[in-house]
UniProtKB/TrEMBL annotation:
GO terms for cellular component: extracellular region. Keywords: Chitin-binding, Disulfide bond, Glycoprotein, Repeat, Signal. InterPro entries: Chitin-bd_dom (IPR002557), Chitin-bd_dom_sf (IPR036508), Chitin_bind-dev_reg (IPR051940). The keyword Signal applies. Pfam families: CBM_14 (PF01607). The keyword Mitochondrion does not apply. This is Chitin-binding type-2 domain-containing protein. It comes from the Eukaryota.
Amino acid sequence: MLKILISAFTCLALFGSTAFAASSCSSSNGTFPVSGSCDSYIECRNGVAEEKLCPDGLLYNEKSTGYPCGYPIDVDCQQGQGRIQPAQPTEECPHQFGYFPLGDSKNCGQFKNCADGRGYVFDCPDDLAWNKETYKCDWPDMVEDCDAAAFLGFKCPGPASSSAKSKSSLLGEQAAEYHFYPDPQSCQHYFICLEGRPRRIGCGEDRAFNQELNECDDIENVPNCSAGVKQKGSDIKNARLQASKAQTTSQRSGFVKPQKTLGLDCPEPNGRFAAPEQCDAYLECHDKIGEEKLCPDGLLFHQRTHTTGDCTYAPLSVCKERTRLQPANGTDECPRQFGFYSLGDPANCGIYHNCAHGVATLTKCPEGLAFSTDTYQCDWPDTVKECNAEAFLGFTCPTVTRTEDIDDNEEDMRFYPHPDNCKRYFVCVNDRPRLYSCGRNLAFNPDTKLCDFYTNIPGCSAGFKFNRN
C-alpha cells in the first residue's frame, strides 16, 4: 500500500475546534482515531488533545508515521460504517483530494488527480486502463469496469480461427485461451487474447510483429511494414534526443520576472498568451489590460487555442524555442513544487514522486514497469534510461552461446519462468529482461513458453507458488 506525505500547510478543517483534556491522549504526542469516524483524528501535543479533520477525500491513516491522512486505498478504516464528512466538490473534482477515473467502459485510459479541488488529467500508458481498485494503470482485461475489446478496438476471434488452432495444438484444447494476433492498424503492435479478452503490446520503435514467428522481430524482416513507418521510428528517436537537449538547456537558463504590462501588449482583448521566451510564463489579458504571470513552479504554460491556455505538466506542453524557466523552489521532497520525479535509484524505478505544492506522494507503476521522467509514463524498464532493468526486476538474462541451432530471432526474444511465482515470467528482449504475468487462472508453461492452466505446470500450486518440496 502506498503512503502519502502531505505537509502541514495543506488546509485542514478543525472538527468542532474542540480541545480535549489530557486524559484523551494515550500518550503525550501523536495521533489517534476517533470512535465512529474514518476521516477525523485526535492530535496530541504535550498531552493536549485536539480533534481534527482530514481534507475532503482523505481518511485517517492510523499506521502512518508522517502526515496522518491518506487516500482511501491506503487506509483500512476499522470504524465499520464510520461517518465521513460531506463531499466538498468543485467543478473539476468530486472531492478535494483523490484519484478518479474518467470516461466510460469504452474509454478507460484516463484518470484525474485532484489536489485542493483542482483536477489534473493524466493518461495511462498506451493500451493500459485506470484501475480504481488499485489506483494504478493496468491491463484493461484486469480492470473490472473496462470493456477491453471496445477500449482497444479489437475483439478476440473465436476459437475456430487459424491462430487459435495453431496455439491450441501446442497447449491442448483446455488451454486454447492464449493466442497471438497482429494489430490490423499497426505492424509494430500485436494482441494477446487471454480468456477471450485482448491486451495490446508494442514491439518498440525499430521492431515489428512477425506473424510467422508470433513475436517481435527486426522491422526489416516484417514485409507488411511500410517505408513510412520505418522512417517514423527514426524520426521519433531523433525528436526525443533533441527534446532532452532542450530540457537541459532550459534548466540552466534564467527567467523573466512577471510584471504589469500595458494593454498594447495584448494580442487580443481577452485571453491567455504564451510568453515569447519563457516556458512557464504567460500573459493574461482582461479588456485589453495585460498582466504577465508565472505558472506554479514545475508546471509549463500550454497554448491550447489562439486565446486559451493553461499550466500543465512538462510532457503535455510544447515549448519549442521558449527555453527559460523560473528558478526552482524545491523542498526536501520535491525538486520543484509540482511535477513527477523518479527516486533516483536505478534499482527501484517503479516508484516515483508526484509533487503538488512541494509535497510528494509516492506513486507506484504497474508491476514490472518503470517510471520515465521523459514521458511521465510507466514503461518497460529496459526502455527507461534511468532504470537498471536487471536490478529492478531481480533477474539477469542468461548468456546464450551462439550455435548453428540458434538464429538471430531466437536471441532477440527469449522466455524464462519466474523462480518463485509460476504465474509470472520473464521475456528477454535484446538481452534485457521484462516481467510479464499470465491472465486469471493461468500460469507460465516453460516447455511451451506460453500461458497454460496451472495444473499443467509441475510444482505450481493453486496459489501460483512453486512447491519446492
